[in-house]
Amino acid sequence: MSRVPGSWPPVEIEPPVLHPNAPAPGTDLGVHFAECFGCGEVEGGLHLRSSVGDDQTVQSKFTVTRAHQGAPGLAHGGLLACAFDEALGSAVGNLLRRPAVTGRLETDFRRPVPVGSTLYIEARLDGTAGRKIYVSADGRLDAPDGPVAVSARGLFVQVGIEHFSTHGDPQALEKLAEAQRKNQINP
Ligand SMILES: CCCCCCCCCC(=O)SCCNC(=O)CCNC(=O)[C@H](O)C(C)(C)COP(=O)(O)OP(=O)(O)OC[C@H]1O[C@@H](n2cnc3c(N)ncnc32)[C@H](O)[C@@H]1OP(=O)(O)O
């Protein structure tokens, strides 16, 4: 359920088709990039942890610390949006294994998220339309069946791998690709 007006996805979509090498339900997805603010070992980062769920979902967990505050004792909304960007991106990257970036991210903040609470995020693939990949997620407080505190929906746009080398850090990208080849993760 969303408070954002308009139907979702906003265009006619194809059902998502999982990559043949997509990890099976239950697989721990680990860290996709050690310096990622969402899932890496970054000081003050979100340290979000994800695994594959059933029915084309990724389940993620993120514990709010004092480093994530906006108002005293409460999570900053922008950091919560970051957690959803990561969780949605993880669903796209791991289940479809198509290189993609966030084009649009909408968030509904429905309950305050206190420091010390853990957000249980379920991200699901909604559908694709050419290069456009539609995903959505709910984040529940302190338990997988807790009350929904934040909902999000996003459009990811498939890009060529040159997007990352042209606009990012090609050397770091090559190092990451090498590590992934060794671990046999991602194409
Ligand atoms: C295992 C991996 C785990 C990864 C987890 C990490 C998750 C974190 C993900 C991120 O945060 S990525 C970083 C934040 N995003 C960016 O930096 C993207 C910056 N934007 C761009 O680079 C370009 O705008 C973009 C690649 C998204 C699109 O540019 P393009 O020139 O390639 O495509 P174009 O603008 O023609 O858009 C393609 C389609 O998407 C649509 N589109 C793009 N942006 C849109 C938007 N904002 N709203 C609605 N539709 C949008 C656009 O209308 C069009 O629709 P049609 O095909 O129907 O014509």
From TrEMBL:
Q: Where mainly found?
A: membrane
Q: What GO annotations for molecular function exist for this entry?
A: hydrolase activity
Keywords per UniProt: Apoptosis, Cell membrane, Cell projection, Cytoplasm, Fatty acid metabolism, Hydrolase, Lipid metabolism, Membrane, Transit peptide
Subcellular localization = Cell projection, Ruffle membrane; Cytoplasm; Membrane
Report domain Thioesterase positions: 73-138
Q: Give the GO terms filed under biological process for this record.
A: fatty acid metabolic process
Q: What membrane topology is given?
A: Peripheral membrane protein
Pfam families per the record? 4HBT (PF03061)
Could you tell me what reaction this enzyme catalyses?
Answer: (9Z)-octadecenoyl-CoA + H2O = (9Z)-octadecenoate + CoA + H(+); hexadecanoyl-CoA + H2O = hexadecanoate + CoA + H(+); dodecanoyl-CoA + H2O = dodecanoate + CoA + H(+); (5Z,8Z,11Z,14Z)-eicosatetraenoyl-CoA + H2O = (5Z,8Z,11Z,14Z)-eicosatetraenoate + CoA + H(+)
Q: Where is this region: Disordered?
A: 1-20
User: Looking at the UniProt record for this protein, which Gene Ontology cellular component terms does it annotate, in alphabetical order?
Assistant: cytoplasm; membrane
Enzyme class, broadest EC rank: hydrolase
The signal sequence is none
Superkingdom of the source? Bacteria
Q: Name the EC number(s).
A: 3.1.2.2
Q: Keyword Nucleotide-binding: yes or no?
A: no
Q: What family does this chain come from, according to its entry?
A: Belongs to the THEM4/THEM5 thioesterase family.
Protein name (database record): Acyl-coenzyme A thioesterase THEM4
What organism does this protein naturally occur in? Answer: Amycolatopsis panacis
- Source taxonomy lineage? Bacteria, Bacillati, Actinomycetota, Actinomycetes, Pseudonocardiales
